[in-house]
């Protein structure tokens, strides 16, 4: 009986309920895009560090896990490689530069990352090959660079770099394209460490050295399960270092935690607003059918049936609205250019959708309670 009453009213007043479903769809779209924006901006900061092919990251002692403040020399790298339990280690350096392209694409600001070929820190090449030599004028590209600039394996890109007071240009051959490896909210290119030292922007003239100082050292363990053990062993055997896992490393990047906290707060407030808005619409709907509920109760319909019919309506309308919102959001995301940091992942979308499916019934609880409190005679205007 309850389901019959619910569906009958939905069909009779489908325009009114479609309006409520549309409001739910808009709220769904807003929540999903905030979640996708949080994921996209988070990826822009953590993508490279999160995907490193090593379990631990070494910083200079007292650098507070700040990559830009950390300086580690080759002697430290040699000490690290001698520690029991270390499979391999590689130096990594970071800088920022601008790329120019022969195909006429607009110049692109990127993170310039220096890595040791074949060592932890070098990203895998999903197309083409990896880096070959320490001084080779070649690069592996983050796929975001390839997508934005239309660059392919074998193409030549130009690194624009300020050397002292002069602007220099260095041609680099693209030998491979990796997956997404953004760093510091910019797409990345990866070059051999000594090549990085030659072409990076710097105050004076470029002077490469085999005793190159790096920002961090990435460590690959013989047994990845020994992370906690090696966090203790490494500082005990290597002087002047502090150790972090990958999660600690990317959460310590400037602005990451504050950015994610801000976006998550917006998401929670949007859900709260959704509860209030949906509850308000169903409350208005309730007030408009007091007489009908009074008539149903007068002919013997119980409060349980009335409440179940109302809950059925709320769940159905809310589910339809969420479904429309999800489909609309995913279709709308296809129209955004690649540089817009909108990323829909199951980890972001599923919790958001489940939350939205819950807030509808929560928002409608007041209206359900109001329906059970309707007095038949008073609703029909017969009470004295």
In short:
The chain is α+β, with helices and mostly antiparallel strands and 384 residues long. It is 50% helix and 18% strand. The protein folds into 2 domains: 169 residues, no CATH class; 178 residues, no CATH class.
What's the overall average pLDDT, rounded? 85
Give the count of structural domains.
Answer: 2
Largest sheet: 6 strands, mixed, barrel
Classify the secondary structure makeup into a structural class.
Answer: alpha+beta
The proportion of residues forming helix, as a percent range, comes to 40-55%
Low-confidence stretches: none
Series of H and E elements: HHEHEEEEHEEEHEHEHHHHHH
Give the DSSP E fraction (strand runs of 2 or more residues): 15-25%
Query: Total number of β-strand segments?
Result: 10
Q: How many helices does DSSP assign?
A: 12
Specify the oligomeric state.
single chain
| N-end to C-end Cα span | 31 Å
Shape: elongated
| Strand order in space, largest sheet | 2-3-8-5-7-6
Radius of gyration: 30 Å
